[in-house]
């Protein structure tokens, strides 16, 4: 019988797990996201968070089953759906049975279709898609499938929280909606328009436009249109370099209202905004690390920052992916039969050990994780809970508990 020794986090991290893994099989998890190009900072930071979570929350505690260790395999997709499909096949050929991806819903749509097709044709090498950040609602609606699980609230769930906050602000009379021209950007715009019309029919949408993703070098023309529209608030789903470029240009051109966002933090964004982002930038997300809700959270963040001094604990859902996968594998009694692992994930109630005191639920009808959603404000924050080592970070301004648990889904799940 395997014996385990309970260690503190620091000691556990220092303990090599290589000897324990000699007699065990590694559970290979393929990370397919941008590791080069304009969105590399986002991808690399996400990779580090996955590696740290696997090492700390699973491997340092003895792994899963009889000592199987999680192994994160990085694959650079260059934010391209076509390249992602190439890397998916390479990952499968290398023995990966779990795929994690989050940057770009365009990529996620390509992956989920390819994985569904692969699994129907290749029952001996089936894989699960653990989507940690691609939030196009279609992925858990008309494009849902048994092999896909989403751990991030989708765009409509997040917009429901954002528009709840906007609806309470009577100073907002005019809103400008702007985003990237692909499936996620379109989903954000559609949800913003429809939800504001329902909650605050007096609000006027004074702009609704899309721009090419990752190709705009100077956002000044867009920013000038925002300012000249007389908007009291801006809503954008931009991320990465596009979020930084748009947000900075809007503020530099004199806009003084709130900018409601999905991804305006970390990866150089927080440092670049600095003082200018205070009382301007608001971001919708899950989890809460400022202040840390538990002593374990504080220890985890400090250990992560010690290993990755330039890193950011910016996507708390990544630890949920790793912990819930480990729980599902242990409950299923197998890491290789992904159908059994999926059955364990489906309907799972999960108690987050780090970021929340509430339970989460993986909704069985569409494989969408339901959890609390917060609106954060860009504010001065003490290290190590700041981002980009900048002295600025996120503080909760508004919370929706168990957000959108009853939101409708059009998913018609076909199970193997």
TrEMBL record:
Q: Which UniProt keywords apply?
A: Amino-acid transport, Signal, Transport
Give the superkingdom in one word.
Answer: Bacteria
Q: Where is the Leucine-binding protein domain?
A: 27-376
What is the annotated signal peptide range for this record? 1-24
Indicate the transmembrane segments per the record. Answer: none
The GO biological-process annotations, alphabetized, read as: amino acid transport
Question: What's this protein's family per the entry?
Answer: Belongs to the leucine-binding protein family.
Protein name (database record):
Branched-chain amino acid ABC transporter substrate-binding protein
Source species, please? Answer: Pseudosulfitobacter pseudonitzschiae
